[in-house]
Each structure stands twice: as C-alpha cells, then as structure tokens.
C-alpha cells in the first residue's frame, strides 16, 4: 500500500466524517450501536463506489461528472434543511434521528459520489482498486465512528441548537461539493 492510496482514502472519507459529526450532533448523545450502524453504511458505500466506478469505465465518467455534484448538493441540502426544520419543530420522531436505512442510504450515496468518480479515474494511477476500496472503507468506518462520537459529545454540551448546526453542516458540505465541481472554489 502506498501513500497515494492513504491520501485518497482520507480525502474520500472527509465528507462522511463531517456528516457523521452532524448525525452525532443531531442525537445529542453517543450511542455505540448508532455509531457502528452509521460507520458500517458510510464505510461500505465508500468502499463499493470506487469499485463500481472502476467497472463502469471511461465513457460513464463524462456522464457522471456532468451531474454528480448536483446530486450530492440536492441530497445533502434536502437532509440539512429537514434537520433544521425538525430542530425548530422539535419533533421527537425526527427522521434524521431515526437512523433508518432509507436516511443512511441517502447520506451514504451523497457522501460517496466522489468515490465513484475516483474509481473511474483510478486506472491511470498505479493503485490497486481492491486495495483502494478496502483502505477507503476502513478509513471511512473509523473516521465516521469517531465523528459520531465527537458529535455526540458536543451534542450534550450544545443541547437544542445541535440539530440545526448539523443541518447547516450538511448544507455547507453539499454547497462546497457543488462549488468545487463548478470551479468556483
């Protein structure tokens, strides 16, 4: 395993780490079962997406690069707005707090779209796709778990404002992805 693989894995895991912090903030407490559930979803999607991208080939790269940033932006903004709304509404049955499979799949896809594009372009590097996928999945799992822990710790301190903060974080991540792909930042 080379340094390039590690750098790529850490870079790909950053969105998942940030979203994991937001999820930890939303619950205001740390629960190991929820941290593991989030980490497994994020790690799995971050590991599988480069493989899917690698198999898809160069022709699909042009199709995906045209709209991947929009998909990530829309999904993260929708969930972020929902978190803000639910923090104002103070609904105890919040969809974000539920950690349902549907919510986790949406978040996992939104944070792993870049990994799909990396998988498409990894053939020009001297990096094994299986090694990259495995390292990315493990790094994402570990950082996501730590992110939920950090969010839960800060959630206890910040109390009622944390779900709004988590929503804002998701919106900012989505906006950053969009602006980066549009070449604005």
Describe the structure.
It contains seven helices and no strands. Helix 1 (3-27) crosses helix 2 (32-56). The chain has helices at residues 3-27, 32-56, 58-89, 95-98, 101-121, 129-158, 162-181. The protein is mainly alpha-helical. It has one domain (3-181). The longest helix is centred in the middle third of the chain and has 32 residues, at 58-89. It starts with a helix and ends with a helix. 85% of the residues lie in helices and 0% in strands.
Helix and strand arrangement:
Blueprint: H1 3-27, H2 32-56, H3 58-89, H4 95-98, H5 101-121, H6 129-158, H7 162-181
Helix pairs in contact: 1-2, 1-5, 1-6, 1-7, 2-5, 2-6, 3-5, 3-7
Provide key terms for this protein:
single chain; 185 residues; mainly alpha; 7 helices; 85% helix; globular
Write the H/E string, N to C.
HHHHHHH
**What is the rounded Rg?**
16 Å
Strand content: under 5%
Helical residue percent band: over 70%
The strand count comes to: 0
What's the N-to-C terminus distance? 31 Å
Outline:
globular
Number of domains: 1
**Mean pLDDT rating:** 80
Q: List low-confidence stretches.
A: none
> Which structural category do the helix and sheet elements fall into?
mainly alpha
Tell me about the largest β-sheet.
none
What is the count of helical runs?
A: 7
């Amino acid at each position: 395993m080379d340094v390039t693989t590690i750098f790529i894995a850490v870079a790909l895991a950053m969105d998942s780490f940030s979203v994991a912090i937001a999820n930890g903030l939303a619950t205001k407490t740390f629960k190991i079962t929820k941290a593991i559930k989030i980490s497994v979803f994020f790690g799995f999607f971050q590991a599988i997406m480069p493989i899917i991208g690698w198999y898809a080939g160069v022709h699909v790269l042009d199709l995906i690069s045209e709209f991947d940033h929009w998909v990530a932006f829309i999904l993260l903004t929708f969930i972020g707005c929902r978190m803000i709304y639910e923090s104002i509404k103070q609904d105890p049955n919040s969809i974000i707090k539920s950690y349902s499979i549907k919510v986790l799949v949406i978040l996992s896809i939104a944070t792993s779209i870049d990994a799909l594009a990396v998988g498409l372009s990894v053939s020009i590097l001297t990096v094994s796709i299986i090694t990259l996928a495995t390292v990315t999945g493990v790094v994402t799992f570990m950082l996501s778990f730590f992110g939920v822990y950090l969010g839960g710790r800060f959630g206890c301190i910040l109390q009622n404002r944390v779900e709004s903060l988590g929503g804002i974080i998701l919106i900012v991540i989505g906006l950053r992805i969009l602006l980066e792909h549009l070449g604005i930042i």
